[in-house]
């Protein structure tokens, strides 16, 4: 019990400073701007909406069906409304509970793993718990409120395995139906929190095979139960496919192809060899974040990780080293599958939850994401703690080496805690988050874009902030010349700074990239309209009228486009346009009323 308490307290202590954080990044779309969360009458709508409040069957949906996570947000909002403290507190407590469950799972797997297991004491379970509780790569899942999907999924995955998994030498046929039903129910809950929960039942089947299958009869009963668990996994997957009304596994993760390319450029490489080599760099970066989480970022897209264009790319040596290490680990786990269950299940936890995020089955909507390492890191912590325990239990190790081993464990733990604490402060606000990101991934246009938005929105609004934001948008456009939103936002800030000619140029660049940007047409029309009045230039007014028409064609529900167009027609002083202007004013009034 005291071990669990220590792990729980450490997890809370590492993240206590995250309680003062704001809603940042995806928190806005998933919570504060999500009417399904904020409106009291929409409780039943949770079950037909995706994570971002869009109907799951809509073409606009990203198909992230996580109703239980959304339900937890709604309960949070019902209690404390839009106060982020309550949301952060729930996340911290969930992470602390998951850390305790990691401790218990490691204890079960390490029991009787080797003849010398009695000498391990509390080392493996305590070490795995504190490693998991303090690991900096978890900050995105804990300090970012939308990371709760990872936390809840991890909670139910581990609970399902601990409740339903066989114990050392237990006959699976003696396992009560109640335990099995509860375990399967928890697996379903994990699946409803995040799609990764689909791995729960296969992992549960592995526990049965590893801990119970010691004789042919036990293996027979374990095999029967495993067949049932894999059948239920298939039914889960089929059910989700029906829910999202899709006949393939690949999710639609972005509405616009251009945005998809920016967020996972390797998946659009024409050469399949180079594409998979680029994916290998993504795998290596994920592995490095688990091993050495010194440099963390909220985004790794665009050119943050340049694509592989040649087989001579030296970065491929890192990916090769990763694959060789993984192969050696899997060989070791397979050769000691029954004598060292912690190695086998730790390896399963390390690899299986990562597969959906690896681009191996389908293209995902990101390059690297720290949040997807929450479950795989469980396996990492189990394997490290077990390796340390084996070394510590070796009777041939002299006291000096034993003390050196203790230092090698305690120093990284202290660094983990320190990094987690400082990383929490970076997630405090949008501006601190993206300022830290540009230090780690300066080649990401998305990072510069988001930093510009954060600076633009910070109070008080002044010309210095406008200028700083404009420079960030221009930096994003410099990285990606086809980033339409960057050009558009640069135009907005230039206009606020009265840099009219620059604003016109940026709006025209935005339109050149995306000729369906109604906002760019409308804003450019306003500038030309004003210039026509100040300079008595009829050509400017003529172009402004054309641009207003284009904006209305794209977004006919925007009332101010009609009123602006009506005003422009009146400025022509052409009697033939008077009735047209009146009709446009009436249209604008009706749209504004609705």
Description:
By secondary structure, the protein is an all-alpha fold. Helices cover 66% and strands 0% of the residues. Helix 6 runs antiparallel to helix 16. It starts with a helix and ends with a helix. About 3% of the residues have low confidence.
Largest beta-sheet characterization: none
The portion of residues assigned to helices is: 55-70%
Q: Give the radius of gyration.
A: 28 Å
Shape: elongated
Distance between the termini: 61 Å
Class of secondary structure makeup: mainly alpha
Mean of residue pLDDT values? 85
Number of strands: 0
N to C succession of SSEs: HHHHHHHHHHHHHHHHHHHHHHHHHH
List the uncertain runs: 114-121, 246-255
Query: What fraction of residues sit in β-strands?
Result: under 5%
Q: Count of helices?
A: 26
Overview in brief:
With 594 residues, the protein is mainly alpha-helical. It has helices at 2-15, 26-32, 35-38, 67-80, 84-110, 123-134, 139-143, 148-164, 177-193, 200-211, 216-243, 257-263, 272-291, 316-335, 341-351, 376-393, 399-426, 430-440, 445-457, 463-479, 484-496, 500-513, 518-535, 538-554, 559-571, 578-593.
What tags apply to this protein structure?
single chain, 594 residues, mainly alpha, 26 helices, 0% strand, elongated
Topology summary:
Elements: H1 2-15, H2 26-32, H3 35-38, H4 67-80, H5 84-110, H6 123-134, H7 139-143, H8 148-164, H9 177-193, H10 200-211, H11 216-243, H12 257-263, H13 272-291, H14 316-335, H15 341-351, H16 376-393, H17 399-426, H18 430-440, H19 445-457, H20 463-479, H21 484-496, H22 500-513, H23 518-535, H24 538-554, H25 559-571, H26 578-593
Helix pairs in contact: 1-5, 1-6, 4-5, 5-6, 5-8, 6-16, 8-9, 8-10, 10-11, 10-15, 13-14, 14-15, 15-16, 18-19, 19-20, 20-21, 21-22, 22-23, 23-24, 23-25, 24-25, 25-26
